[in-house]
Design brief:
alpha/beta; 2-enoyl-CoA Hydratase, Chain A, domain 1; five-stranded mixed beta barrel; single chain
């Protein structure tokens, strides 16, 4: 009876402790839910798949925390058009107002950054920043030369404009319509938006504010929130009044996934991973069972293919790279007086140049990297080729023929001559008479016999 009472008392204490902890947890959660937050997302550098993924997950996190506003701080030279459109889709679908802010002083929102700034509910810039140059050739569409600057003064004789290809005309027309629709949606300067696409024009923060490209010039985030407070905006078709008073600013930091994705989707890194994958599988192929090269090569190759799936690559360029590598390998195994090696080197370099289907800043493969890897690859297989040629004149060191040139001592038994070489006992014969104990050297093999001759004594 006493034991049962003690058990009931203990259960009661445990139950009370559990309820107490639940109460404390509920209070903490309630306090967190009542926090008024402004989520800060800082985007620096080229806009690529990792950037779009980071923004999407940050937006989801801000929605879960019921943030009042999202501040998208930009400092970018541009990027890939696919990543840019993904970010803009997220902004347009966001239930939370997104304030685009080009900062700090000295930053810029060029090319893709201009489109993103136009898509935000409120556009702001810090003093000493600029935006523009939104011609689509510069934001990750194929081909073409760099656009001419449209803000040059028309003085004297003008050069005839370069003829645009049909693909360039289509890209520019599509980009013009896209940025026009964003400008009309947000009630901003449509005429300048189109000139930023057609003529690659750029504006300073002050100029952008004067012609209503942006809504606010703010030197810092507190000043930005102060000016944005009370502004009326349209969020998913509904008019809202922005309330930014007494907000706590919480910055979203990139996690390991974003950093990892950012590294492997770098064009140069993806290119190097492709080469590591090729070399790893090649070494495993010529030396089966070593395992390490095969494992490293397979992982690197899969990572490279994943990165290429996210990047705008030219598959003809990738095919030329693989064809070039195949030719170089073939040269090492079946020499063709250098024709396969030269053809492979040319195909490899041309394919590497063609590989990235974009002129976006930060997403091309540097020429020095292409040349360096091409030289290393060709030099390696030339070394393999030279070793193969040198080995032709050497005696065979494996199999039955390995005994040729080796010495041994003759043993006569039952009218048969035997010789022990490298631990093996061979029946032998000779063109000259031999006696038991004579030292001999193997000349050649005839079936199961080795032909020997006596060692000349000095």
């Amino acid at each position: 009876m006493y034991c049962r009472k003690r058990i009931f008392i203990r259960c009661f204490y445990i139950l009370m402790l559990t309820f107490g902890l639940l109460g404390i947890a509920s209070h903490i959660i309630a306090q967190n839910n009542t926090r008024r937050l402004a989520i800060l997302i800082d985007i620096k550098g080229g806009i690529g798949p990792a950037t779009a993924d980071f923004f999407h997950r940050s937006l989801k996190q801000a929605t879960e925390k019921k943030a009042q506003v999202i501040i998208l701080q930009l400092d970018t030279p541009g990027g890939l058009v696919t990543a840019m459109r993904d970010i803009i889709k997220d902004i347009l679908a966001s239930p939370i107002p997104v304030i685009g802010y080009v900062a700090p002083s000295g930053a810029h929102a060029a090319s893709a950054g201009t489109y993103i700034l136009y898509a935000t509910h409120i556009a702001a810039m810090a003093p000493g920043t600029n935006l523009g140059a939104a011609t689509p050739i510069a934001i990750g569409t194929p081909g073409g030369s760099s656009p001419e600057k449209g803000n040059e003064k028309k003085e004297g004789a003008k050069k005839a404009p370069a003829q645009k290809t049909a693909a360039e005309k289509k890209a520019i027309s599509d980009a013009r319509a896209y940025i026009r629709s964003l400008a009309q949606l947000r009630g901003r300067n449509v005429e300048w938006a189109e000139s930023a696409v057609d003529e690659a024009e750029s504006l300073s923060a002050e100029e952008a504010y004067k012609i209503k490209v942006i809504n606010i010039i703010a030197s810092n985030i507190p000043n930005l929130l102060e000016q944005a407070n009370g502004m009326k905006i349209s969020v998913r078709g509904e008019t809202q009044t922005v309330n930014t008073a007494n907000l706590e600013i919480e910055k979203v930091e990139p996690d390991w996934r974003t950093r990892f994705l950012s590294v492997i989707t770098d064009s140069s890194v993806a290119y190097i991973l492709l080469m590591i994958g090729f070399y790893g599988i090649f070494f495993e192929f010529i030396n089966p069972g070593f395992i390490v090269p095969g494992v490293v090569g397979a992982i690197s190759l899969l990572l490279a293919l994943y990165a290429f799936q996210l990047l705008p690559i030219n598959y003809a360029g990738l095919a030329l790279i693989l064809l070039g590598l195949a030719f170089i390998v073939a040269e090492a195994f079946m020499p063709s007086f250098g024709m396969l090696g030269i053809g492979g080197g040319v195909a490899f370099v041309i394919g590497s140049i063609m590989l990235m289907r974009t002129d976006a800043i930060g997403f091309g493969i540097p020429m020095y990297l292409i040349i360096a890897i091409a030289i290393v690859t060709i030099a390696f297989f030339l070394l393999v080729l030279s070793i193969a040629f040198r080995s032709r004149g050497r005696p065979i060191v494996s199999g039955r023929e390995a005994v040729i040139g080796k010495r041994g001592v003759v043993n006569v038994s039952d009218k048969r001559m035997w010789v022990r070489i490298e631990g093996e006992r061979w029946q032998c014969k000779s063109d000259v008479p031999l006696q038991d104990g004579d030292e001999v050297v193997v000349e050649r093999l005839e079936g199961l016999f080795c032909v020997v001759k006596p060692v000349e004594k000095k």
